[in-house]
Automatic annotation (TrEMBL):
Keyword vocabulary terms for this entry: Membrane, Transmembrane, Transmembrane helix
Pfam families from the UniProt entry: YwiC
Annotated InterPro entries: YwiC
TM regions (residue ranges): 9-25, 31-53, 65-81, 87-104, 111-132, 138-159, 180-206, 218-235
Name of this chain's protein: YwiC-like protein
Keyword Transmembrane helix: yes
Top-level taxon in the UniProt lineage: Bacteria
Length: 236
């Protein structure tokens, strides 16, 4: 199953949180179920495609790509029939996916630029989910898109201080500086509950790399942080 199921645990939060942000900014309806089914299958398909590009292991990744493509087609067609605008919105993802494909081919998929390209893609789901929910407050949708973007960029920086840049003090201070800026920005623009969430993220960025928690513990803590951010947005 390892060729079918992504091993990037943090990506699951990026898959779900922006989708829920879009619902918060609009109203839930049954089409959201279809949208999420498509979104999940697309994520699984793109993982297999990028791994195929990176490893060139056609033997292992051709079947997952074909399976997910065939599963996606009826769901995607159904969604397009209900919401034809999805065809246009899907094109927005293409240049960002090309960036991911380039870094996969170069075997540099952990590069920060590649992470940011993926984060933008995931965060764009805020707008799509918002449109599916027939939302009218585009300003709110834009704010939640920015919240998603800023949160996950901070998470990418923090995770690197726990794994790939574990012994890089300069990168650790980059992460802390980013999270301090996030708190200051929250103090200026956001409600108290989201300021509190930003403070939690700052404490995490400062403390956990020093404590030296395991990768599994870091993953669990990210689930908690994602819930904190989601709840803060919902309350606000």
């Amino acid at each position: 199953m390892k060729y079918y199921i992504p091993n990037q645990h943090g990506a699951w939060a990026m898959l779900i949180i922006p989708f829920l942000f879009g619902i918060i900014a609009s109203k839930p309806n049954l089409v959201h179920i279809l949208l999420f089914a498509c979104w999940l299958i697309i994520y699984l398909l793109m993982f297999a495609v990028l791994q195929w590009i990176r490893t060139k292991k056609t033997k292992f990744y051709r079947k997952p790509v074909l399976v997910y493509t065939f599963v996606l087609i009826p769901f995607a067609l159904w969604l397009v029939v209900l919401r034809p605008v999805m065809v246009v919105l899907a094109l927005v993802f293409l240049p960002l996916f090309i960036v991911n494909a380039y870094y996969a081919k170069q075997k540099r998929e952990r590069a920060l630029v590649n992470d940011i390209a993926a984060i933008v893609q995931f965060s764009l789901m805020v707008f799509i989910s918002f449109l599916i929910g027939e939302g009218t407050d585009y300003g709110l949708a834009a704010k939640l898109f920015i919240v998603s973007l800023l949160y996950f960029v901070g998470t990418a920086l923090y995770v690197k201080t726990m794994i790939r840049e574990k012994n890089n003090k300069r990168f650790y201070y980059y992460s802390i500086s980013y999270h301090i800026a996030l708190v200051l920005l929250s103090l200026w623009l956001l409600p108290w509950v989201m300021i509190a969430a930003a403070a939690v993220l700052l404490i995490r960025a400062i403390g956990f790399p020093r404590i030296g928690i395991t990768v599994k513990q870091a993953g669990i803590s990210e689930i908690v942080c994602s819930i904190v951010v989601l709840v803060s947005v919902w309350i606000a």
